[in-house]
Write a structure and sequence with these properties.
By secondary structure, the protein is an alpha+beta fold. It is built from 22 helices and 35 strands. About 35% of the residues are buried. Bound molecules: zinc ion (2 copies).
């Protein structure tokens, strides 16, 4: 038998990523293709991509195809490792707690979770026991086996195992006739996959916490327990991540908020911030900064009502699409009002008021608007996720011709502002048209292209999120990287075709005809509350001097120096420095420690010598001795350090 007759009709041709094409017998698997390329690759194979679809390494390939081997080095490979580690939680949990019922175990950022129904609460000891058992199972290097199984058989299997929730999930998929079952020795999980072929890929994981969850994420349903974990391809990656977690815990803004006496929360107002004087000072500094930046960029500032009639929300579409997140109220005269969840309908009403001509455009209307959104109580998280927050919102109304230019201006402004807050690594994401959308393709082409051209003209790199745009227009997202490498999505720029239409707004163009303006929505900090949370964690509580609630403290060494200390302090305050005076009858060492802990950037110490010579001795928060100098010189230095970066940059840049 020649090669030709052996392979002839049963051969498929496989196109590899390097552009080469190889012949394989029909029914070959990705793992066998990997073996043919090299033993090393075969060992590293987590899964494969066949014509862009992720499949198991054991899946057979019956037609000519493009095949890419997926290893743990890729994001896709890592995500599969995380998903398989979730399954392994199931394997370990069922061995240790046979009456537990497994619910769902998806992948999340940096890891995975598994929701479980169990008769008692899991403890930290349970978590350790589960982790230990997982490591034992991994050490067996057992093979994960996939079996495509007919629906009825799947139901029988889960019935026999009393996996009630898996049965409910099967019910949800009424049209599906066969399902993928993954066998982890005696444990069986249902999944679309793909999964790793062997547990040896799952070595570098850690279970991180237990929390509550609800079946289908609905508080009215029964409560479940959620086990969170993280998983990585290498020990180095895992260690780096755990270190980052530790760092994050140390600088948790909720902890810092307490220590620095900035804000608190209480049960009477879930998800609403009680700002203490020092916290509110930071808030005011941000507003003041943004206000000046906006003034210098041709914005006007407006304010719109917090409570507006239901009919307005019907026009905007919020009543139909967002009502479950809105706080509403009915008045004595039976009118229904809603607290604004967004500032846009207010902004568009302002534009609509009075006739606008093309000469009035662009209108750049900024509003520090407080918005109210009912978020599930389980999702609330310090300042990062609240129900009541203030947006540095703005709506720009412009002609289609100037839209790209307006987008460029917003992008330049947001990047410059982030830089002044110490964020130099900013990723930009462009979300394009979703499947469900309004407007014709030509309009979408124009809007998307305008955003792309704006980014290209500024030589900025960006990532495209296909089909992630809002139904009414494409969107840019600005993602900050903080000091410990975490990413935070803050700013957004959205193009909107919907609200101008719904509110029927127009301007008179050069030909004297009514024309619809383009509406842009933009927020740069996003939520001021959340941005403060991010700043606190980024700076680990030690804010730059211009943002610090207290910039300097004047301390007397003994009671004899109290009046001189007061005199110095008042001079600082009159010069616009946020200063405090500490003339308490305490040891100077104690005072220094206390104000350093409070992260006050500058400590001014006055004793006999300073009082006689009219000088002060200056110390930095970090303990650096900055020497003794005249009051005038100290004042000059402090004024320079306390000024916002806005005042330090040349005028044309603001
Ligand atoms: Zn799964
Ligand atoms: Zn808006």
């Amino acid at each position: 038998m020649t090669m030709q007759t052996l392979l002839a009709p049963e051969t498929i041709s496989v196109l590899l990523p390097d552009g080469s094409s190889r012949q394989f017998p029909k029914g070959i698997t990705a793992i066998d293709i990997a073996k043919a390329i090299g033993e090393g690759l075969a060992k590293a194979t987590v899964a494969a991509k066949v014509n862009d679809n992720l499949v198991d390494a054991s899946d057979v390939i019956n037609k000519d195809a493009r095949v890419e081997i997926i290893t743990s080095a890729s994001d896709e490979g890592l995500s599969i490792i995380r998903h398989s580690t979730a399954h392994l939680v199931g394997h370990a949990v069922k061995q240790l707690y046979p009456t537990a019922k497994m619910v769902i175990g998806p992948v999340i950022d940096d890891g995975f979770y598994y929701d479980i129904a169990y008769e008692r609460s899991f403890t930290q000891e349970d978590l350790q026991a589960i982790e230990l058992r997982m490591h034992e199972l991994i050490a067996q290097h057992y093979e994960v086996i996939k079996k495509i199984t007919p629906r009825n058989h799947v139901i029988d299997i889960f019935k026999a195992r009393q996996e009630d929730y898996k049965l409910r999930l099967v019910e949800d998929m009424a049209d599906v006739t066969t399902m993928g079952l993954y066998y982890h020795q005696e444990y069986i999980d249902m999944c679309r996959g793909p999964h790793v072929p062997n547990t040896r890929f799952l070595t570098f994981f850690k279970l991180t916490k237990i929390s509550g969850a609800y079946w289908r994420g609905d508080v009215r349903n029964e409560q479940l327990q959620r086990i969170y974990g993280t998983a990585w391809a290498t020990k180095k990656q895992l260690d780096a991540y755990l270190l980052q977690l530790q760092e994050a815990e140390k600088r948790d803004h909720r902890k810092l908020g307490k220590e620095l006496n900035l804000f608190h929360f209480q049960d009477d107002a879930p998800g609403a911030v009680f700002w203490h004087p020092h916290g509110w000072t930071i808030f005011q500094q941000l507003i003041q900064y943004m206000r000046l930046r906006q003034q210098a960029s041709g914005y006007v500032e407006v304010n719109t009502p917090d409570v507006m009639d239901r009919s307005l929300w019907e026009i905007s579409g919020h009543w139909q699409n967002y009502r479950q997140n809105m706080f509403t109220t009915t008045t004595e005269d039976e009118r229904i009002f809603a607290l604004k969840p967004m500032n846009c309908p207010g902004g568009v009403s302002l534009f609509k008021h009075g006739l606008k001509s093309y000469r009035d455009l662009p209108v750049r209307m900024a509003e520090f608007g407080k918005v109210h959104r009912y978020e599930p109580s389980g999702s609330l998280h310090g300042l990062m996720r609240v129900r009541h927050f203030t947006q540095d919102d703005a709506h720009i109304f412009c002609t289609p011709d100037t839209m790209q230019q307006e987008c460029s201006l917003v992008i330049a402004l947001v990047l410059d502002i982030y830089k002044q807050f110490g964020f130099t690594e900013v990723a930009i994401k462009l979300s394009t048209r979703p499947a469900n959308r309004m407007g014709d393709d030509a309009t979408w082409d124009h809007l998307e292209q305008s955003l792309i051209d704006a980014l290209d003209s500024m030589a900025l790199e960006y990532q495209i999120n296909p089909r992630e745009g809002a139904f009414y227009g494409p969107k840019l997202e600005f993602v900050l990287r903080d000091a410990i490498g975490r990413d935070w999505q803050c700013g957004t720029l959205q193009v909107d075709m919907n609200l101008p239409e719904r509110f029927d707004i127009s301007y008179i163009n050069e030909a004297g005809q009514r024309q619809r303006p383009v509406m842009l929505h933009r927020a740069l900090f996003g939520s001021l509350e959340r941005f403060i949370g991010i700043l606190l964690e980024h700076y680990s509580g030690t804010l730059p001097c211009w943002l610090a609630p207290v910039q300097a403290v004047v301390m007397s060494i003994t009671e004899q120096h109290a009046s001189y200390a007061t005199q110095v302090g008042q001079q600082l305050i009159r010069s616009g420095i946020r200063a405090e005076i500490d003339t308490r009858n305490e040891k100077i060492g104690y005072k220094i420690r206390e104000h350093s802990m409070a992260r006050t950037p500058y400590l001014l110490i006055v004793g006999n010598e300073e009082m006689i010579n009219k000088t002060v001795t200056l110390r930095s928060q970090t303990g650096e001795n900055l020497g003794t100098s005249s009051l005038t010189d100290t004042l000059l230095l402090l004024k320079k350090m306390a000024a916002s970066p806005l005042y330090l940059c040349p005028l044309q840049q603001i």
